[in-house]
């Protein structure tokens, strides 16, 4: 039994382990190749986050989904490179929108080179992903375009906020389904599709990826509050300090509105104050870590992970299916 990837995924079969490890190594090489430019400065900026590392969660899912067809098919690795490049591009843009200072434990591109360079570098990565995608055929281009539309729609919905009368938690889950679930769903789809797994298995792995992607993001929400050393390289409470209302905060607000407990109302007031103040930030973080709102967010994470696992039922039994099921457990464990 060997651990594969940053989650410590247990691979119980040598052939599967070899396929996944070889595939991920090829993806890493493909990412470096795709981010090279004749202009050295563009190469430096484009490879900034590639070289910072990362979970490579989406390429891992591509590799596992490909096991239900021919994992050595020529389109599998390029498809994994496409989804990771797309993900990286969104990170450059997100950091500009959030005015983030750090990403993956290193200085964010916008902090280092300014917003304009960060935005244009993200655009460069989108262009390189599209170039690779074109070789995968028109169906792949259409799927990626639809996912990208959902991703951008999710980002816009987050910026606009819930419409009048809409439950903020429901709105947030819709946002996450677009921003995160859509591209993880494409990872499952591309892995199965490029490997020739067939329409039925491809649809199963797409639906699995959608739910797993949401669970993955919700686990990050929990980690931002509960963890002492954030897995993404961010300092705990970063989302709080940046004024991003993640799921635990939304649950807190809902509880304060429903029950009006003095301590909940007080904590909401603290959250809406200046969290650039270290003492205030530490107090909010301490209180949220023991608040029922955090447990509610954990339960939502578990629910989506369980839904993802349930989607796997039609797949044939084997090591690849077991690995996909274990991914659900590992996502939940991150939020534990």
From TrEMBL:
What cofactors are annotated for this protein?
Answer: Mg(2+)
SUPFAM superfamilies reported in the protein's UniProt record:
Terpenoid synthases
GO MF entry, a single one: metal ion binding
Under InterPro entries, the record lists:
Isoprenoid_synthase_dom_sf, Polyprenyl_synt, Polyprenyl_synt_CS
From the UniProt record, give one GO term of the biological process aspect.
isoprenoid biosynthetic process
Which Pfam family, any one of them, does this sequence belong to?
A: polyprenyl_synt
What this protein is called in its record is Geranylgeranyl pyrophosphate synthase
Corresponding gene?
Answer: ispB_2
């Amino acid at each position: 039994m060997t651990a594969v990837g940053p989650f410590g995924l247990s691979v119980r079969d040598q052939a599967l382990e070899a396929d996944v490890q070889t595939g991920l190594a090829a993806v890493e090489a493909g990412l470096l190749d795709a981010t090279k430019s004749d202009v050295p400065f563009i190469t430096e900026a484009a490879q900034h986050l590639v070289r910072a590392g990362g979970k490579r969660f989406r390429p891992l899912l591509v590799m596992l989904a490909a096991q239900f067809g021919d994992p050595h098919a020529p389109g599998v690795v390029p498809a994994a490179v496409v989804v990771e490049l797309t993900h990286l591009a969104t990170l450059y843009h997100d950091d500009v929108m959030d005015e983030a200072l750090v990403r993956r434990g290193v200085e964010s591109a916008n902090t280092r080179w300014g917003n304009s360079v960060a935005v244009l570098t993200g655009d460069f990565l989108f262009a390189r992903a599209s170039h690779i995608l074109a070789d995968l055929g028109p169906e792949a281009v259409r799927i990626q375009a639809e996912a990208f539309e959902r991703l951008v729609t999710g980002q816009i919905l987050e910026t606009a906020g819930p419409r009048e009368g809409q439950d903020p938690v429901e709105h947030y889950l819709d946002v996450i389904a677009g921003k995160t679930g859509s591209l993880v769903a494409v990872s499952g789809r591309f892995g199965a599709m490029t490997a020739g797994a067939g329409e039925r298995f491809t649809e199963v792995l797409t639906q699995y990826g959608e739910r797993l992607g949401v669970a993955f993001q919700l686990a990050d929400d929990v980690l931002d509050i509960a963890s002492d050393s954030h897995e993404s390289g961010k300092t705990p409470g970063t989302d709080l300090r940046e004024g991003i209302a993640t799921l635990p905060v939304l649950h807190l607000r809902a509880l304060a509105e429903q029950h009006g407990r003095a301590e909940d109302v007080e904590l909401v007031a603290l959250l809406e104050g200046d969290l650039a103040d270290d003492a205030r930030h530490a107090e909010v973080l301490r209180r949220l870590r023991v608040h029922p709102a955090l447990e509610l967010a954990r339960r939502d994470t578990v629910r989506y992970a369980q839904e993802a696992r349930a989607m796997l039922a039609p797949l044939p039994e084997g090591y690849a299916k077991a690995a996909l099921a274990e991914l659900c457990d590992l996502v939940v464990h991150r939020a534990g």
